[in-house]
## 1
Amino acid sequence: MTTIHITERAQNELSHLELGEGGFLRINVIPGGCSGMTYTAAVDTDFGDEDVAVFESEALRIVTDQGSAIFLEGLNIDFSDDLIRSGFRFTNPNASGSCGCGASFAG
């Protein structure tokens, strides 16, 4: 099973999502960005046969497809509200490189 880590601060921010009944946050890895791969995130309710839950708590469930799961192992999600670069921060210990803005990574 893929394991990701979400800081308490990020969980607090994610708790504001309007997930609705049966809703979850879907995070996938797709080709793109200047380093080759990038993350996508969206609220979803359709849990398919190829999907796996990578994080579950009382208030939040995060799901990905099996192809993305290998790239998410050990992923750390944090949230920053600093003035220069506020938002969610994805730190991937398995990435062999990333672009200068941090929006994409190389696997």
## 2
Amino acid sequence: MTDLRVLPVEGLPEVTKGMKIGELIAESAELEPDDIVVISQKIVSKAEGQVRRLQDVEPSERAIELAKKLGKEAELVELILSESREVLREDRVLITETHHGFVCANAGIDSSNLPEAGTVCLLPADPDNSARTIRAELRTAIEGQGVGVAGPSPLLSADPHPLSHPAVVISDSFGRAWRLGQAEVAVGCAGLVPLDDWRGREDSSGRELQATVIAIADEVAAAADLVRTKTSNTPAAIVRGLGQYVKAEDGPGAAALHRPPGEDLFR
């Protein structure tokens, strides 16, 4: 049975454009090879310059019309439209499919936990690539640390291609169509098996499973959120004990979790 631990990464500074998040986390946390580092989308977007001032946005006629209908700022609606490939619902809230392939409210644009009034935060342009970049930064930072007071880092190896080193998940809060409340999901990941396909295996009674596919990346994202509340200024956490899902290769990323449109019964 898996012994699972979730540890907050404390002491991170306010992240601004250009900062290397992997380096910051490596300096603030003691990592083990099979850890999964879960990072709030918000600080990734900040580091990548994905913050916009509403006063700099010129709304289109469509944005103005939708803003009146929904009681939103036209500038915000314009950003939502620009970040979306398709608007799926425009009743009370805008549900869109983003250019990444996420189906979510307001294209994932958020105004919470931003130091400057009148600004909003967009999702990273390519969250899986962001996760791969942060994972590489973690590895480089750990290698640069070399030997510490406790001896060689357990993440270092004479083998230039170790079996594994910390995986990275970038998480964000999404609503659920079938349930109340929000939960964290993975919008990007690297070094982690995002889905565990149990189809074809037998259950405890010997019956063959037909439809069971476990969303490992989403479950890791949700677990990490339990130790970093919205007001705690703790934008990262370590999930430890799931080494069977951590791989040396970066893997397919969270894009593997997208439901193909042809299988979406709610469109």
